[in-house]
Design goal:
Layout lengths: L9 H4 L11 E8 L5 E8 L12 E4 L12 E11 L8 E9 L9 H11 L6 E11 L32 H14 L3 E6 L5 E10 L2 H20 L2 E3 L14 E6 L1 H4 L3 H14 L1 H5 L24 E3 L6 E3 L1 H6 L4 E3 L8 H13 L1
Parallel strand pairs: 1-5, 11-12
Antiparallel strand pairs: 1-2, 3-4, 4-5, 6-8, 6-9, 6-10, 7-8, 10-13, 12-13
Helix pairs in contact: 2-9, 3-4, 6-9
Length: about 350
Amino acid sequence: MALNPNVSQPQLLNRYTDLDQRGRVMAEYIWIDADGGLRTKTTSLEKKVESLADLKEWNFDGSSTGQAPGHDSDVLLRPVAYFPDPFRRGDNVLVIAETYNNDGTPNKFNYRYSCAKTMAAAADQDPWFGLEQEYTIFGLDGRPYGWPVGGFPGPQGPYYCGVGTGKVYARDLIEAHYRACLYAGVTISGINAEVMPSQWEFQVGPCPGKDMGDHLWLARFLLVRIAEEWGITVSFHPKPLAGDWNGAGCHTNFSTNGTRAEGGIKVINEMIKKLENRHMEHIAVYGEDNDMRLTGRHETGHIGSFSSGVANRGASIRIPRSVAAEGKGYFEDRRPASNIDPYRVCDIMVQTTCL
């Protein structure tokens, strides 16, 4: 019988996974392409990776990823972080890499470079981030995974944090992703089923500065890579289905040493005023097709207006009830879409509120 090319074949692969690598190490380099997609390629190293200095600068064909013209196509990969590889295990690693042009300048789509500079400038304020990554899973037939053929599941209500058949789908995939993140050292803090059936969320953080982007991108990579094994497609589109269904966001929780200190609520309110003054500038980097999600319905504020409130999930900025009661802590920016580049969001958040 022919094998399904869209799912993994562990009964074949497992014969080879315990073969001796003879002291050599596999390093899979991960980078972001021109469309905000993930790309990877793997190289062999001669010894175990102990530091970034053990990872070489590499390159790829940028004309095939939208990051360089064909006549000058080499784009450099410079390692900036590495993690244990939950797929190959052993001493093998996953490497987050920045992209650079061959003249040494940051590639146009290297948003981590600017983010790192911004975080360095605001280091005395110790900015922390926590991102809530929502996503939707689809089957090979293009329908949301588990939805009935030719129809729809019941209305939203029982699915959020649901338990039981017909309320959640692909829990085994979600559990596998959680374990892989923990193994790799991702600062993952939780998971839950979301409001729309076949929609899930994982949370990453708190992380300081640019580390937030590194960890979220790696968590996304692990999710998409694991979903390959189930024959499932992961969508980060902010409104994957029209109609009376919730969209998908990447709510951004933010704090500094000022907001976390006694009386920090005053600093939070000052920051919210700064965010209001730059509302549309933030919207410009808060994800593609976000207008389809930020309609003022389904727990969102309208894309054309700015609002804030305590425990208000229909506002642009939500101050948690506990923060208002304690007078210090953090706030949540609910505007970012599920398909954001976290480096860009963290960058502009700090630029607006701290610099």
